[in-house]
Amino acid sequence: MSPDKKTLLLVDGSSYLYRAFHAMPDLRVNPADPHSPATGAIRGMVNMIQKLRKDVRADYAVCVFDAKGPTFRDELYPAYKAQRSPMPDDLRSQVEPIHEVVELLGWKVLCVPGVEADDVIGTLAGIASRQQIEVIISSGDKDLSQLVDEHITVIDTMNGKRRDLAGVEAEFGVPPRLMVDYQTLVGDTVDNVPGVPKVGPKTAVKLLLEHGSLDALVARAAEIKGAVGENLRGALDWLPKGRELLTIKKDCELNSYIDGLPALDAIATGAPQTSALRTFYLKYGFKGLVSQIDEENTPPERVGGPKRRQPRPVVASLNEPGLFDDLFSEQPVSPQPLTGDAADPASNLHYETILDWDAFGRWLAKIEAAELVALDTETTSLDEMLATVVGLSFSVTPGEAAYIPLAHNYPEHQVRPPCAGQPRYRGAGLRPRHHAAKLCARSASPARAGQPGRPASGPQRHQLRRPVRQGRTPAQVQPGGHCQSGGVFVRRLGSDARRPPRALAANRGQ
Questions:
Q1: Which long-range contacts (CB under 8 A, 24 or more apart) does 85-90 make?
Q2: What is the DSSP string of 205-246?
Q3: In contact, 147 and 8? CB cutoff 8 Å
Q4: Which are the contacts of 206, defined by CB distance < 8 A and separation ≥ 6?
């Protein structure tokens, strides 16, 4: 995905509300009092939102919940969802706090009466898709697959599943444009919407692929033989209503809820309200989240050296959600890289390791044109008098960064930093004087003076080998992560850690 593309993230809050409630243990404001307010679903939703913010760089974000009261589908078909049990009281009591905390986390919350959350999602997805804005829908509801097109993808953070054009067809056997027809034939037992009797997924796929659409199938219903044809003809009067019930609306009136539509500026992703979040977390007993905020707000001079807090061991108890997966873990979880199909459109962060001169020239042009450049150095020590530069990482746009490996035991990776000797650039980063001192020390190093292509020698090469013996080289540090080896911390803005460094200088003459 191009880093210049705008992205809208739509979260099916109602879907995750129930999943969080049933997946989490019975957490309470006061763990010693089982009659104190329940908090498990709130905690699960917080974790889900935090994980999505790490996985998806969204320019716009909305969390959509079902509103109270009946919808047009209930009027159309009174038996719609009639078999469902009412919402548990412990979950009902957490709905309003969940709405509150999602807004505090910087996302717009929508509840539109008369329609379902899916209809609001379908309308917003269509508005964005028509503007060629990339849309990511986070939900476990298969019904949303009918919305998928070249700009709309559905992801399920619970299992890493991704439903794009190819994913929908691979899972259901029909493309997204036929999903409503498919659902109409097989019915939806979850929503109590009948289909054609004894027509299951395989038969529905066979009929649709043979005839091209439900309309074409209905037009030739008299020609369908056997029990399938008989059942189809018996359901002809029902099928139009079934299709209407199962079709997600794309024309909800949302102008009174979002200003300026079709522009999406009113739902731009906001920054978390840290102070209000801390108060909220204290109110509901989320001590781990309070500590997380306090650590992030601790000034550097109050931190006792490079020591980092170690995570607590997972304890199997009712008040420790560590029994569940990372999404519902009580402990703050470091982001793990996705693999396979789940790794692609679910994240639109763009990180690059510069391994040839074409890439170097492209990034140099970006740096020269940028008003502000963020720069970070990777070194063998935090002491600028002893440190040797291992590599450079830099960024000119949020969500997009590059890394140049300079001394990964590859002699040809000695490249002059793009910003060296050009003080007119504005820079941003951690410990700027420290990084400047390291760059100056590198430029003045006798081992490199006049010999930019020669490998490092002596203590530098020895220090670079130390992380290798422990299985953690600078190239293996994940984007945004930290690495500690023998007292040495390596911080990385971002890179493709799966690709081994190759010779830059060797390609220069080609």
A1: 88/21, 90/21, 90/38
A2: HHHHHHHSSHHHHHHTGGG--HHHHHHHHHTTTTHHHHHHHH
A3: no
A4: none
Tell whether 277 and 387 lie within a shared domain. no
The count of residues in the chain is 510
Do 85 and 253 form a contact (C-beta atoms < 8 A)? no
Reduced to 3 states (helix: H, G, I; strand: E, B; else coil), residue 193 is strand
Q: Minimal CA–CA distance to 407: which of 284, 340, 490, 334? A: 490
In terms of Cβ atoms closer than 10 Å to its own Cβ (0-12, 13-18, 19+), residue 6 is middle
Give the pLDDT of the chain (510 residues) as one tens digit per residue.
Answer: 555 789 999 999 998 899 889 888 889 999 889 899 999 999 999 998 998 998 899 999 999 999 999 999 999 999 999 999 999 999 999 999 999 999 999 999 999 999 999 999 999 999 999 999 999 999 989 999 999 999 999 999 878 889 999 999 999 999 999 999 999 999 999 999 999 999 999 999 999 999 999 999 999 999 999 999 999 999 999 999 999 999 999 999 999 999 999 999 999 999 999 999 999 999 999 999 999 999 887 665 454 444 444 444 433 333 333 333 444 444 444 444 434 444 344 445 678 888 888 888 888 888 888 888 888 888 876 666 667 787 888 898 877 889 888 876 554 444 444 444 444 445 555 555 555 555 555 444 443 433 433 444 433 333 333 333 333 333 333 333 333 333 333 333 333 333 334 434 444 444
User: Could you tell me if residue 203 is inside a domain?
Assistant: no
d(CA 434, CA 306): 15
Which of residues 327, 343, 359 is at a domain's end? 343
The strand ranges marked E within 164-320 are none
Residue 309, both tokens:
């807090």
- Residues 479 and 331 sit within 8 Å (Cβ to Cβ): no
Range of the domain at 411: 349-508
Using CA atoms, how far residue 35 sits from 32, 90, 94, 317, in Å, is 9, 10, 14, 18
Helix (H) or strand (E) holding 465: helix 459-469
Instruction: Let me know if residue 230 belongs to a domain.
Output: no
Strand 108-114: give its sheet, edge to edge.
108-114, 60-71, 7-12, 134-138, 152-156, 161-163
Contact predicate 402/461, CB 8 Å: no
The letter for the amino acid at 300 is P
C-alpha of 61 from chain center: 11
Q: How far apart are CA 501 and CA 407, in angstroms?
A: 10
Q: Determine the Cα–Cα distance for residues 116 and 123; give it in Å rounded to an integer.
A: 11
Three-state DSSP at 58 gives coil
Residue with tokens 């899916």: 118
Domain's final residue, options 313, 343, 373? 343
